[in-house]
Design a protein that fits this description.
mainly alpha, Four Helix Bundle (Hemerythrin (Met), subunit A), 160 residues
């Protein structure tokens, strides 16, 4: 699935593949796992969508085009890391493949919509839950600690 994100990304034409490789080298003493890399890429998509919404409101269409290109590169990097050979990952990879395609198409067509600002907001709301899930997967110790806090005293009777 995405646990090996970055391992097979050798496309020298994709700046995100290049950046990922450079980042991995620079962070050799503190390597990121696939979930952390995916989380950073999702954060990049969300940042781009927020930036596009702002650029649209400012009527800066040249900036929007550049941000869209950047977003497409991120989506390509994410798609290229999907594993369709691993039986355990096929279902998730199929979902993510469709998810990335939907984002790609919606970003490509957003300026043709009646209210592009609302469309960017809808895209943000579409991506955010998946980003949150990757973030939780990349920080299991924080999720475990939060769950422990939430469940603390769960076996105690409720006092009235």
């Amino acid at each position: 699935m995405i646990a090996n994100l970055g391992a097979d990304m050798t496309d020298s034409h994709n700046p995100y593949a290049q950046a990922m490789q450079a980042y991995k080298k620079a962070e050799a003493s503190k390597p990121l796992n696939g979930f952390e890399i995916a989380t950073k890429l999702y954060a990049g998509i969300l940042k781009n969508l927020y930036d596009c919404k702002r650029a649209y409101e400012d009527k800066n269409f040249e900036e929007i085009v550049e941000i869209h290109k950047n977003t497409f590169d991120i989506l390509e990097a994410l798609q290229s890391s999907l594993s369709f050979e691993d039986d355990k990952a096929v279902e998730t990879s199929d979902f993510l493949y469709r998810f990335y395609n939907i984002i790609f198409v919606k970003v490509a067509q957003v300026l043709e919509q009646e209210d592009p600002a609302a469309e960017y907001e809808a895209l943000i709301n579409y991506v955010k839950p998946v980003y949150d899930r990757w973030k939780n997967l990349s920080e299991p110790e924080k999720v475990d600690a939060q769950s422990a806090e939430e469940n603390e005293g769960a076996d105690q009777p409720i006092e009235e």
